[in-house]
Specification:
By secondary structure, the protein is mostly helical. Helix content is about 45%, strand content about 10%. It contains 5 helices and 2 strands; from the N terminus they run E-E-H-H-H-H-H. A two-stranded antiparallel ribbon has the order 1-2. A hairpin with a 2-residue loop joins strand 1 and strand 2. It is found in: Cytoplasm. Its main location: cytoplasm. Keywords: Cytoplasm.
Length: about 100
């Protein structure tokens, strides 16, 4: 896996730019990743990102938008409002996680 520098820190990424090492992520990196895709992080964005990271640690895979809705309590419409066009992909990218299964 390639190693690139984000926010002054070396991180491992895959060919699509998603982080591949869970422990290399931090909020500074998340802010930079969000800026790269045009997302201005708010408290609601952080709520989603922290849910995703906690859920990934417990489940071993990235939550889908449906799981974020049912388990995380964040409606799918809100996910689309916070992360327009492909929310699953954008949320997992910012959270430093792999794309959810079934995400293109």
């Amino acid at each position: 896996m390639p190693v690139i520098e984000i926010s002054g820190k070396p991180v491992h990424v895959n060919d699509e730019g998603f982080l591949t090492e869970y422990d290399e992520w931090d909020e500074d990196i998340a802010r930079t990743l969000a800026q790269q895709i045009g997302i201005d992080m708010t408290d609601q964005h952080w709520k989603v990102v922290h849910f995703l990271r906690d859920d990934f640690k417990a489940q071993g895979e990235t939550a889908t938008t449906r799981r974020i809705n049912t388990v995380g309590g964040i409606p799918v419409k809100e996910q689309f409002a916070l992360f327009p066009k492909k929310p699953g992909r954008k949320m997992s990218y910012i959270a430093g996680l792999p794309k959810p299964h079934g995400c293109v």
